[in-house]
Amino acid sequence: MSHEDFPTDDPAVVTCGLPYANGDLHVGHLRTYVGGDVYARALERLGQQTAFVSGSDMHGTPVAVNAEQEGVSPEDFALEWHERYAETFPKFNVDFDNYGHTHDETNTELTRDLVRELDKRGHVYEKEIMVAYDPVDDQYLPDRYVEGTCPYCGAHARGDECDEGCQRHLEPGEIEDPVSTITGNPAEYRKRTHKFFAVSEFADYLSDFLDRLEGTSNARNQPREWIEQGLQDWCITRDMDWGIDYPDAEGEETDLVLYVWVDAPIEYVSSTKQYTDRAGADVFDWEAAWRDDADHDGGQIVHVIGRDIIQHHTIFWPAMLHATDHVEPRAVMASGFVTLGGKGFSTSRDRAVWADEYLEEGFHPDLLRYYLATNGGFQQDVDFSWERFRERVNTELVGTIGNFLYRSLLFAHRNYDGAPEGVETASEEVTTAIDEAVADVTDAVNDYSVRDLGDAVTDLARFGNEYIQRNEPWALVDDDPDAAAQVIYDCVQIAKAIAVLFEPIAPDTCERLWNQLGEDGSVHDVTVGAATESPAGAFEEPGELFEKIPEERVEELNEKLEERVAEATDEDTADADEDADTADDGTADESGESAASDLEPLAEERIGFEEFEDLDLRVGRIVSAEGIEGADKLVRLEVDLGIETRQIVAGIKQLHDLESLPGTRVIVLANLERAELFGVESNGMVLAAGEGADLLTTHGDAAPGTQVK
Question: Motif 'HIGH' region: which residue numbers (predicted)?
């Protein structure tokens, strides 16, 4: 693997975190998969050989529990969901080169081979540990069958993760005050022999790896704290029947199964191998991409995940790869969560926009792809609301991109039957604008920013609208026909460039645009070089590519959502917070969806209005943001408060893309006493909501220094 700018001569693999085969997909899940698809397509536009792979995560306790509740086998239960996912992703133009699952033969064999290699090289050992046991039900309890108190932060936690507090991975036996989730009985700890992967041996390697790792900053910053605190060896077996049996060094199976997080990331390799098996090594060689040994230099591995599974992809997984002569990931892109109208998704209360529901409402998938890809930085939390969705579609897709394409191509068709003949090439001004857009797209890929990729195209369309309006070809047709022809040729060239550069975000729409332009072949098969190639020439009358969403449509959609939520809440209020789905138990699932809504109770003690008036709350504008050296969470902000610029220290380093913060409006408690944090003076406090540090801002453009009342 190299760290040269894309495109490189090495094969690239883009993966998405495996969806857990346990429930329906909604727009919260789709953010990661759309983001991965956009990025993989953009790499291909640059000419990078790329495989885009994923698969369904079939194993683990929730699958076994839900299968038992439905009276079917875990395999049948998980396979049904796997098949639904495989049908759903293409409907949103998420085009995996291979989509497998963790229980298939390829992944089972590769997992066993890799674990045997870890064992053979001395990285696995046996150890007696304390495992939760239900004395009433007379059974050992895998981690997801246990709840209790996190030993590190004191929050309520699952047996394998402090999902409501510090989000730290927990080993069997660590959780305090354990309770069986099956029976509700208090659990006790008993000794059991399990297998451990010696992750602690790789602390120095992992520290260096994080220095090299590209992608989003949260994927680098978050795991450093765990390394600094001291890595604990990782229990890689569990007491349950559903999963891949642990193979010993001689290939014999044991009565333990592998922890789901061992076989889940190996599916990335397995899915790539299946792609090679189907397409041929001349199309894509999986070993050239994944192996790092005497015969292979390794490829470019990019993982696109939800931020709740950063630890697995930046600690456990690279250690496994390094220990078995596989290439380490080049980049990890960890997305923020998605909320709905400012609130968490709740599957038990049916408070979600489901993937199938979105399509049934008649909306094109490219509209949602654009919204999810460009609505905020990838690592930031984003909010989905039908109002904002309508606004982005009507303003940017219809008003900017669609407006330019339709008006310019319609004029070209009616006056020239397409791109005007006799014009040899686009003008220097337009060629420069397209070259700049191509450069912006290339930079976006190398900066791992799907938002910047979309912005590059919107900016080009905005330039196109300004260009045609400024040159007024309709006024030149009679007086200066050569000048008019040049302007329209330029506009057709811009339209062709948009079709090429916007394809990663709006693939179906850009294919229709490509056909409207009369171009040969498919836009999916061209690279960015096609953006400046001469237009094909004649084409038929174009149609409008985007339609406005009326305001009353949003009202209708909101009413439907409110009715569904009310109905679901009335039907099952008592059980609403006990949904077995991973989206409503205070957790964030493997696709990066937001946890639902366990909120702190409102304070009983009230304060007087005079006390509130003592708080000097001001609108501020972030001027600069930089991490404080040696501090995992702290950032030094320069904030313009209108009257003066303040230095403020905030604990948001792991939760925000620092490069995107300048220009952001925030709310500042200006009369807070000065404090010194990590040797840096802080003169005020920036206000944020929740564990995700959702920065409080203003709806309009209130000037810095404006008082909040």
Answer: 19-29
